Each structure stands twice: as structure tokens, then as C-alpha cells.
Amino acid sequence: MDVEDTPSCDGLTLRSTGERVLVLGAPRALFLATVGLLPAERGTISVREVPAQDAAKRRIVAGAAENPPLPPNWTVAEYIYWSARLTGLSSSKAGTLAAQVLNCLQLTYFSKSRLGSLIRPARRATVVAAAMTTCADVLALDNPFGDLPEETVFRWATTLTKALEDRPWIVFLPSMSLTSPLALAADEAIVISADHVVAQGSPSSIARAERRYIARIHGPLDALAPQLAERGIAMEIVGAHVMIDLGKEHRTSDLLAACEASGVVVVELRPFSLAFA
To answer: Which of 82-86, 210-214, 259-263 comes out lowest in average pLDDT?
Structure first.
């Protein structure tokens, strides 16, 4: 996917069969492409085996962006009602659906509030509610916890997880606490760094990978490989990154010693588990 003629997500290949999926660390372009708002310049992106732009038109997928523009003078109830109406529902059915969604996202108190004056958590919930009223098969959420106060995040995550418990979803986030209700409800997590998948599996299995690291290393990697092998440290090259598994017996100091002996420089070193920091 290109943003302003610059590749934002080039060469990424992934597939998930999960019904509730966390995507951690991906560029925002991947969310936009998933909900049909950004075309894939090279390759394809599909939801339920349907190209994303067609999937969006057919309401196979609906998105809730992090901070979309909202009509400031509309009320919360009006915005959600008209989201339902635009799917073709009658006035009475749209009203019933809007009331149900307001209730399950705990927005009833804010139903008459103007969008322009909403507190941030209620604004986020309103955008998700509008996506829910489309009755799309899959909901894709863009960083629903971004810029929210820490004391609010767990409560909002609990409400969101309960509201989505009967729906397939994809949630795009920079990172997430493993204790978050959303992480506990997820079937699968996919951790992305640059244009590569660096981990995929259950959230708990990824978070337990305390001895595995994602590194960026400058210098001759072919010289580093035998140094690491001598020490029993596993290395895998994935695009511009190097995956390092220290195993049970080694420390990062062993890795740095091997790098020094090989004439290479570690410019970035991050534990896999930070995806769930």
C-alpha cells in the first residue's frame, strides 16, 4: 500500500484464519486497506476471501477509525441511527438497532450529547457503535485505545470486548497489555515489524517469548552467523530484521560479544514480548 506515493507496507505477506485477531505494530495503511479505504498498489488484501474494497461495499467488513471527522452538531444517537439507516434499514429497525448498540457500548447516557463536545472515550465508543450498526460480518478497529487515559483503557476494553463477543473482529494496535480483556478474548495475535510478520500465534505464547528478540544489525551478517552458532544462539533473517533466540542459557551480553567479534553493530534490540507490554 502506498501513502502519498510512498510505499507504506510493501512486501508484507500474512494470512489469518482467526475469528478475533490482534494485529500489533502494523502501519496504519494496513487498517485502511483492510476496510477498503486504501487500494493495494501491489498484491491483494482480502477479507473472507473477498478483495477488501469489494468486502467493504458488501458489508463483509466495516471499520472504526481512530479519530475520523464527525459532524460536530449531531448527537450520538443521530450519528448511530443514520449509520444504521444508510445500510438500507427502515426507520423503525434502524432505531431499534441503534438503541441496542447504544446500550451494549454503555453510550445511552451520552445519546443526546453533541459529537463536537464528547469526551474522548465516548467518541471512540460512538465510532465503534456506528460500525456495529452496519451489521458487517467482520469489524476492523483502528487503535481504539490510542491517547486514552490509562485508568480508562481497562474499563473501555472490558466494555468493548463484551460488546464484540459474538462478532468476528480485527483490532489494530501498536501494542497491548496481555491482561487486557481484548487480549484474553483474541484467538490470534500477529506482530509486524516494518514489512514482515515477526510473530504469529496466541497472545500468551508470543508474550512468553522472553528470550526472543527482534534486532536491526549493521554489518556482515554472514560473519555473525557462525559466531552465534558457536554460542548456541539461533538467528533468522527476516527482511531488514534479525530474529534472535537466546534460548535458556544465554544473555544479551553473549549476543553483543558475538556481534563485537564479528564486526557488526546492533542498532536496535527489542524483545518479542514488548508487543504485550
So the answer is: 210-214
Q: Mind listing the pLDDT tens digit for each residue in 110-120?
A: 999 999 999 99
* Strands of the sheet with 212-218, listed across from one edge: 234-238, 241-245, 212-218, 265-271
- Going by C-alpha positions, the residue among 200, 135, 142 that lies closest to residue 170 is 142
pLDDT at 178 (0 to 100): 82
Terminal Cα distance for the chain, rounded: 28
Determine if the pTM surpasses 0.85: no
Are the CB atoms for 58 and 34 separated by under 8 Å? no
Distance of CA 32 to the CA centre of its chain: 11
Alpha helices in 192-273 (DSSP H): 203-207, 221-231, 252-262
Give yes or no for a contact between 96 and 81, defined as CB atoms under 8 angstroms apart: no
Match 482467526 to its residue by C-alpha cell. Answer: 18
